[in-house]
Amino acid sequence: MLSDFLFTVTSFFKAGLFAIGGGLATIPYIREYFNAVGLSGFDGTLGVSQALPGPVGVNVASYTGYMSGGGVVWGVIFAITAAVSVIIAPVIVIMAVSGFMSAFRENVYVTSAVNYLRPASAGLVAAAFAPILFSAAFGNITRFDIRHLVLYAVCVVVFAKFRNLPIIVPVLVGGAIGMLF
Questions:
Q1: Which of 169, 141, 138 is nearest to 155 (CA)?
Q2: Number of folded domains that form the chain
Q3: 152 within domain boundaries
Q4: pLDDT, block means (10 residues), the chain with 181 residues
Q5: CB contact at 8 A, 53 and 156
């Protein structure tokens, strides 16, 4: 159990350490842990975590930690451990960098490094959602369902065109369409 605990701490610390761009950037690392401990259904876990209030990276970490704990008591311990581990690395980095950032804000090397981190952050977020998009479009690898791909494309176009809709409208429409498919 100690080795599982240490694996949880190091995995979620690593996820938090590379969370440049926010909680969504932690998803590929948490998915790696999810698969390593033999859990299944990560897309559902991510969906539930996005529906709950709070940062998505912490929500996914907490739920994944709970599921990997193997029971109520150890599940709660692993959930707290995962949540703290994913949070502590960015806190340490922010505390270390914030003192130096104001002194070196005009430095060409620092500005260049920050400019290179932006596309890396976008890449991490894209890496988090590429498997989900693939799963939504193709179901599983052996079966292609064009309905999923068309439904996704229609939703993107409609919701991009009508950005000012109350949030409940896309949620209800998505739920209704999901029940039909």
A1: 169
A2: 1
A3: no
A4: 81 80 74 78 77 80 83 87 87 81 78 77 71 65 64 77 79 75 65
A5: no
Block residue for tokens 């932690």: 26
Q: Would you call 144 helix, strand, or coil by DSSP?
A: coil
pTM: 0.59
The residue range of the domain holding 62 is: 2-115
Q: 31 in a domain, yes or no?
A: yes
- For residue 132, is it within any domain? no
Closest CA to 37 of 74, 91, 87: 74
State the Cα–Cα distance between residues 79 and 27, nearest whole angstrom: 16
C-alpha span between 122 and 178 (Å, rounded): 28
Positive or negative torsion for Cα 139, 140, 145, 150: positive
- Residue 164 forms part of a structural domain: no
| DSSP symbol at 104 | T
Amino acid making up residue 158: V
